[in-house]
Specification:
Strand order of the largest sheet: 9-8-7-10-6-1-4-5-11
Helix content: 25-40%
Structural class: alpha/beta
Oligomer: single chain
Strand content: 15-25%
Length: about 260
Amino acid sequence: MNIIVCIKQVPSSSNVKVDPVTGVLIRDGVESKMNPYDLYALEMALTLKEAHGGSVTVVTMGPDAAKAVLMEAIYMGADRGYLISDRRFAGADVLATSYTISSAISALGGYDLILCGKQTTDGDTAQVGAEMAEFLHLPHYANVHRAAHAANGRMLCSCELGDTVLEAEIALPCLLCTDGEINTPRLPSYKRKCAAAGRHDLITTLSLDDFADADASHYGLTGSPTQVERIFPPEKNTERVFMEGSHVSEQLFSLLKAQKFI
């Protein structure tokens, strides 16, 4: 089973400044890590590989610094990584990002299963996986917390849907978005890290020139139907109201009513 896992490098802190002019996150000087939800997808991929053989390929979109999360995935057990990087991809919204990654995956080909974390901690849209599946014309499930490879070329999946659990089969090739805390991701292997030292062949960079659709207007800012009008950190309000006496509930009711919460 040949599995592709989509991962992303995200800020490791929520205290990230925003450029007031462009409205984008200022990532320079900010420590980064692999998106936590992607760790669960990667662990699922590695477990399936150990059970059924095949390979695990990790893919990320971002600047050259994003190679760090690809190497981390390789230290954990992935076989190779691909960095999708091109200045013409800059400014992409969710739709353009999905199209870019799906175009890269189409260029790679030869996969049976694509796994994504359900969302990223810096965007929280939870839309990229499903949109990629649509671009790739693949069946897909979201909120997957358990998956097993069946003998008939299908995956057996359990999906958390609020107060309901969906048990279903899905034909390969397919795309699954894994839920959080479905497993315990393994730590990077020091032995694998030593073996990968100096191996520049483990990561390949893909640009627009590697895609079947090389029309730059379909990518980045020009290929994005939506744009962020303004982004800003939330205002902090430390105002407090202290209530004393034997009629606190009445005071609280009056306050909530005055504030039009009830």
